[in-house]
């Protein structure tokens, strides 16, 4: 709303402009502040609390549903990164506005959804003893290589930290003191930790939950479903495929699915919707980026047309499902 004119209006001159560069990828990263104390106060399970990670996913999902210019989100531990499209004009690209809006919405949803996820074995909500805090920053990345390396960096960080924590807590839970476990793991590399896990505790790290090893990737997925009254079972099966590794229920997926963008025409008797879905897959290898050129076109190439986006999205959806089926098959085979 416009401010009223007064003799005090000169104070506006002290505000510093913070408009971000045009035509660059924007990444908002949200981090838990003081979460070591917070997780201890709320008795989070070690080395990973699946309830808490699903809560983070749900809060991030709410942000993606609110801000349509977020094309992808990736989270692990107590952090989440949101990638905004290069052409976004959200809040006139003001850094302070984008960051504070994203952090406040994420924090509010984390608190509001707490009782939905943080429950005991009898489904009784655990008390939220004090308010969590999250800080945020926003960074400009000019090229596709930059944004790819950023996301690869965060996923590599997830693997490194989780392998360490899995080994550390296996030692502690089997009688070693925390100080002794830290000393034992000092200067070890990945192969050393894998050997300790397997030879001493019978743990094959590759069989650990993909959510813990790879983090959570949130994408906008196209869902093709039957029109009302024409095969609800088929519709639910389609949503189940799209939500195979999601942290939300099938009912939530159906309720939150947004209409498909203009230009996407469903086959006769079908509806086409867009839903934010959660996946636990590899982002470092080429396959992910080749399958998602609708989101990340190669540098120097224009964004795809509506028809091209539809075609590329179908290819991307198939790629995601293949990756998830492959990961599940490998786990069953190792098991």
Mean pLDDT: 85
Helix content: 40-55%
H-E string: EHHEEHHEHHHHEHHEEHH
Gap between N and C termini: 60 Å
Structure write-up:
- Mean pLDDT is 85; it is low at 231-260.
- Strand 2 and strand 3 form a beta hairpin.
- The chain is globular.
- It is of the alpha+beta class and 335 residues long.
- Helix 2 (50-66) crosses helix 3 (95-112), helix 5 (144-173) crosses helix 6 and helix 5 packs parallel to helix 7.
- It has helices at residues 35-41, 50-66, 95-112, 114-117, 144-173, 178-185, 190-201, 210-214, 232-242, 250-256, 286-291, 306-334; strands at 25-33, 70-76, 79-84, 133-141, 216-226, 258-259, 270-279.
- It has a seven-stranded antiparallel beta sheet, sandwiched between helices.
Write the layout of secondary structure elements.
Elements: E1 25-33, H1 35-41, H2 50-66, E2 70-76, E3 79-84, H3 95-112, H4 114-117, E4 133-141, H5 144-173, H6 178-185, H7 190-201, H8 210-214, E5 216-226, H9 232-242, H10 250-256, E6 258-259, E7 270-279, H11 286-291, H12 306-334
Antiparallel strand pairs: 1-3, 1-4, 2-3, 2-5, 5-7, 6-7
Helix pairs in contact: 2-3, 5-6, 5-7
Quick overview:
By secondary structure, the chain is of the alpha+beta class.
């Amino acid at each position: 709303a416009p401010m009223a004119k007064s003799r005090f209006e000169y104070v506006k001159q002290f505000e510093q402009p913070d408009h971000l560069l045009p035509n660059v990828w924007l990444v908002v990263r949200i981090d838990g502040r003081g979460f070591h104390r917070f997780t201890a106060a709320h008795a989070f399970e070690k080395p990973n609390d699946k309830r808490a990670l699903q809560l983070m996913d749900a809060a991030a999902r709410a942000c993606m549903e609110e801000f349509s210019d977020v094309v992808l989100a990736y989270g692990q531990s107590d952090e989440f990164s949101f990638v905004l499209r290069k052409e976004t004009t959200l809040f006139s690209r003001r850094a302070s506005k984008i960051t504070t809006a994203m952090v406040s919405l994420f924090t509010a949803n984390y608190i509001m959804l707490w009782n939905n996820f943080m429950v005991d074995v009898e489904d009784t909500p655990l008390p939220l003893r004090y308010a969590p805090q999250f800080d945020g920053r926003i960074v400009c990345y000019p090229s596709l290589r930059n944004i790819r390396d950023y996301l690869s960096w965060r996923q590599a960080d997830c693997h490194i930290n989780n392998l360490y924590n899995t080994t550390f807590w296996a030692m502690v839970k089997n009688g070693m003191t925390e100080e002794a476990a830290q000393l034992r793991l000092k200067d070890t590399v990945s192969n050393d930790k894998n050997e300790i896990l397997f030879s001493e505790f019978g743990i094959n790290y590759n069989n650990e939950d993909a959510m813990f090893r790879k983090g959570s990737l949130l994408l906008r997925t196209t869902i093709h479903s039957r029109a009302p009254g024409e095969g609800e079972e088929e519709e639910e099966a389609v949503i189940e495929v799209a939500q195979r590794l999601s942290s939300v229920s099938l009912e939530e997926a159906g309720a939150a699915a947004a209409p498909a963008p203009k230009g996407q025409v469903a086959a006769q008797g079908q509806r086409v919707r867009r839903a934010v879905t959660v996946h636990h897959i590899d982002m470092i290898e080429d396959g992910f980026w080749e399958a998602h050129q609708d989101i990340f076109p190669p540098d120097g190439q224009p964004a795809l047309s509506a028809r091209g986006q539809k075609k590329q999205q179908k290819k991307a959806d198939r790629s995601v499902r293949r990756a998830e089926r492959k990961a599940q098959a490998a786990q069953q085979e190792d098991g």
